[in-house]
Design goal:
5 helices; about 120 residues; about 25% strand; six-stranded mixed β-sheet; alpha/beta
């Protein structure tokens, strides 16, 4: 289950921007969530900056079918809305779930290769 894995893999100060998995992340992963569909189109980067300034480590978690909606919602006005770097984790099940570490984008732009950690869902 994605929520349980996130609870084991992410630091306690993580905040996960997600929609479909928001309940699972909070309930099973014991991590703070922010529903990205409640963030104004032009304010994603600002929201991430505020979270980081308050000691949180932000992540974006998307089901595969959510990625196009996320980009449509945010890509025009926000750098992080482009999700133009590799995910830190890809949870492989009936649908793919990708977890993007905000900190990885700067590493990606600096030329560092981001290796995605694949997780196979248990049968």
């Amino acid at each position: 289950m994605v929520g349980e894995y996130v609870g084991r893999a992410l630091p306690v100060n993580a905040v996960v921007l997600t929609v479909i998995q928001s309940g699972s992340i909070r309930w099973y992963g014991h991590r703070t969530t922010l529903r990205w569909d409640s963030v104004a189109d032009e304010r994603l980067d600002e929201a991430i900056g505020v979270l980081a300034a308050h000691g949180y480590e932000p992540y974006i978690l998307l089901e595969d079918y959510e990625e196009s909606s996320f980009r449509k919602h945010f890509a025009r006005a926000n750098i992080f809305g482009r999700i133009d770097w590799a995910p830190a984790i890809e949870y492989l099940s009936l649908g793919h779930v990708r977890l993007y570490a905000i900190a990885d984008r700067a590493r990606h732009l600096a030329g560092e290769r981001i290796l995605t950690h694949p997780i196979l869902a248990p049968d």
